[in-house]
Structure formats: C-alpha cells, structure tokens
Model the fold of this input.
Amino acid sequence: MDYQYILIDVKDRIATVTINRPEYSNAFARESYYEIADAMNTLGARDDVGVIVITGAGKHFSAGGDIKRFKMLVDTKTYLKAEDIEAVSAMPISIRNCPKPVIAMINGVATGAGLSCALACDFRIVEPSSKMIMAFVNMGLCGDNESIYTLTRLLGPDKAELMMMTGDAYKGEQCVKIGLATVLAEDGKLAETTYALAAKLAAKSSTAHASQKRLIRKYFYGDMEKFAKDEGMEIAANSRQPDFTEAVNAFIEKRMPVYNQK
Done:
C-alpha cells in the first residue's frame, strides 16, 4: 500500500510511523485511519522491527478529525454513518492487535482521533508542554475510534468520564500523574526519551512481547469489535442532533457554541 498521509522509517529494529499532514496540524484525512492500520499490520509482521513509534510531523501529534468534513456533512444533511465509524476503528484495533510494542510520542497536542490513536498504544511519552484532549464532547459527539473504551481502561470510569465529559485539556505532567501517559520527558528531550525506551524494548524478545500482547488483548481488550458497533451507532445518532450542527458551526465561526438546553 502506498501511503499518502503517513511516513514510515525503520532503523535499528525501531519503526517510526509519522502522521504527515503538518499543514493541518496532522488532522486525519479519511485515508489516514486505514494507512495507520495497514502500517501496523505490515510492520507487526516484519522480522526487522521490534518496536513501533507513532508521532506527528511538525508541532503536533494530531489535531483529530477533519472539521471541514464535518461542516460538509452538516450543510448537506448527510451526517455520519454507523458503518463508517465502525470501519475506521480498524486503526485502534490494529494497534492493540500488533504483536510489537507501540509507543505514542506525543509532541504538542493529541486530540480527537489523534488522542484515540495514542490511547490505543501500549505506551504514551509526553513532555510538559504536551496536551491530551478528549475533545469529542466539544463537537457534540460521544467519541470514536474506541476512545471511550481505551480511556476507561487506562483511568477507570470516574476519571475517564471527567475527561470525556468536560473536554478539558490535560498537560504532560497531569497526564502522567493520573495514568494517562506513561513517561514524562524533560523539556526538549521527548525524542531522546522515547527512543531510549524504544531501543530497550527492541533489544528484548519479540516472541515474548507478542505473547504478552496477545494475553492482554484477550483478557483486557477482548470486546473491541463489539464496542466499535455500539460506538458507531451512538456517534451516528449524535451527528443528527442540533448540538452537532451548532458545535461545528461555532468552531468554523470561531465562537463558543450555544446549546439548546431542554
């Protein structure tokens, strides 16, 4: 598969997958989900790869979904489709299914679908200026790409609900403190810290890593496909509500949304 929106580099048994739309703060194009899923499947099967790092080109990990596409859906009243939401869950599912350890190196902001990608990874490395935002509620949506599923497994229901229901930004130190991120790198040492961990993992047994990940997937993430179906139906229903239209229009018009509270 030829990739349009990601870059792949393999060196010293470490594969780096770079989300490559820096002019859009690495917001996901429709094909981005499938390209990352294909990369996980391909790299996971390579003998010369022991660990995978996912990051974003330029200043940010990923700004999430394409709001301009949301605006088109609102204006044409075509809305989100449950089967399409379920289909893009191939990305987080492929990360959890990957037999190799996967590290998210979170430069700048990871929000929306970008956060979903990071949450599916085995480890998340941040620096003090990194931000993680469960921003779906700010668009009148519940969340996609298994974000509620993976967030709840990381934080537990109460802390996950606080993050998803407020849509607040969590900075690097706070992310590590609550268990959202794995390691806090010093300022300016995000890549150094990430690749030090990657090198340590790459030197270990890939066979053992694969077994560890299979067991974790089976007993802690075993119903991801089932969740994807329910998630798709919920978010598709969200997209047909006035709150979604108001949130999208407010974002485009650079104003605060005003919801009709019944």
About this structure: Residues 6-187+206-252 form a domain with the 2-enoyl-CoA Hydratase; Chain A, domain 1 fold (CATH 3.90.226.10). The two ends are 49 Å apart (CA to CA). Residues 30-44 form the longest helix (15 residues). Residues 38 and 96 are 13 Å apart (CA to CA).
